[in-house]
């Protein structure tokens, strides 16, 4: 099975990609900004359509829960890694290690992420995008 970037969903070639922890991804507002302008753009449409902030808040909470509770590493492509302020060499090493040790998947546990910090990153991005 082809491996896909956990941010943009594009296929990542064998032996490429960076591995990040859930906290590294979930607490980065740039990650949320990407998601809100791509796969989760519907959240903004929902706000405009219904004009009900509570509903959008609920959706946001669900997304935050889902992202923060991910306990496996995130695989990130060469392009999306630019969104994150991380030690790239370390993330490369982590990715190589996981691929070598666990050919069947991401069984290593690096999460869950901090829920409060994740929510604050998501809210920040939410305000700047919508
Ligand atoms: Zn990507």
Describe this structure in words.
Helices cover 52% and strands 8% of the residues. It has helices at residues 22-26, 29-37, 42-50, 53-68, 88-101, 115-129, and strands spanning 3-4, 11-12, 18-20, 74-76. The chain has a two-stranded antiparallel ribbon with strand order 1-2. A two-stranded antiparallel ribbon has the order 3-4. The structure holds zinc ion. Zinc ion (ZN) is lined by residues 5, 7-8, 10, 77, 79-80.
Features:
130 residues, mainly alpha, 6 helices, 8% strand, globular
**Radius of gyration from the CA trace?**
15 Å
Judged by helices, strands and strand pairing, the structural class is mainly alpha
Number of domains: 1
Low-confidence stretches: none
Lay out the secondary structure.
Elements: E1 3-4, E2 11-12, E3 18-20, H1 22-26, H2 29-37, H3 42-50, H4 53-68, E4 74-76, H5 88-101, H6 115-129
Antiparallel strand pairs: 1-2, 3-4
The chain binds zinc ion.
Summarize the structure.
The chain is mainly alpha-helical and 130 residues long. 52% of the residues lie in helices and 8% in strands.
